[in-house]
Amino acid sequence: MQNALFIIIGLSILALIGWAARGFFMAAEISIFVRVVVGIVAVGGVALLGIVIKDRIKQAKEENFKEVEN
């Protein structure tokens, strides 16, 4: 249930960012090349952030503390 809430929150944040960026991508005075490059960089940054978060969660689940007795 907690993971579903995190997904919903993440999608909501992405929707708000997309809504805010709409003005940039719809502006006629900005070159199409610049808009495409900014879009590619943004998608790459979000993908990289997602990979980092996923790897960190996976690493946190696998942490074995050598000096702690069970």
Order of helices and strands: HH
Number of helices: 2
- What gyration radius follows from the Cα positions, in whole Å? 19 Å
Strand content: under 5%
Tally of strands: 0
Q: Indicate the structural class.
A: mainly alpha
Are there runs of 5+ residues with pLDDT below 50, and where? none
Global mean pLDDT: 87
Portion of residues within helices: over 70%
Biggest sheet statistics: none
- Estimate nothing, just give the exact number of structural domains: 1
Q: Report the principal-axis shape.
A: elongated
Cα(first) to Cα(last) distance is: 28 Å
Gist of the model:
This protein has 70 residues and is mostly helical.
What are the key terms here?
2 helices, 70 residues, mainly alpha
Characterize the structure shown.
The chain has helices at about 1-25, 30-60. The model has no long low-confidence stretch (mean pLDDT about 85). It has one domain. It has two helices and no strands. It has about 70 residues and is mainly alpha-helical.
SSE blueprint:
Layout: H1 2-26, H2 32-61
